[in-house]
Specification:
77% of the residues lie in helices and 0% in strands. The chain has helices at residues 2-21, 26-48, 55-76, 92-122. The longest helix is centred in the last third of the chain and has 31 residues, at 92-122.
Length: 124
């Protein structure tokens, strides 16, 4: 049950990415789902091993997934002219997964560092 609750939001986010992509190219759909798939994989591996602290993995998974969901929703509903403002706006599908990985990595390092500093201050 816990694993199902963990996996469901990521599967919904990946389904959104594939839906917005429109089935034009399975390669681009997989490329856009890759940050969410990586975050899910990190969480599942961490969920199986009880020793490792999850702060960095959780931060990466949440930030990368929410960033990609935000991008796909803004494309779907054309928020701020995301889809219709430029003839080259579809190029965002190439670069957004890279940005998701970068933002996820930054969030992961910040979460791990914050947790580490909090543990160091808590020990006498």
């Amino acid at each position: 049950m816990k694993t199902t609750l963990l996996v469901a939001p990521f599967l919904l986010a990946m389904a959104l990415a594939v839906y917005v992509q429109g089935g034009d190219s399975i390669g681009f759909a997989l490329w856009n789902a890759l940050p969410m798939l990586a975050g899910l994989g990190m969480l599942l591996v961490g969920h199986r091993s009880r020793r490792a602290m999850p702060w960095g993995r959780v931060a990466f998974a949440v930030v990368a997934t929410l960033f990609m969901v935000w991008f796909h929703l803004s494309w779907l509903f054309d928020w701020g002219g995301a889809r219709t403002s430029s003839s080259t706006s579809a190029l965002a599908f190439i670069f957004m997964p890279l940005w998701a990985f970068i933002l996820g990595a930054v969030a992961s390092v910040l979460a791990w560092t914050t947790h580490r500093l909090a543990r160091l201050r808590a020990t006498p």
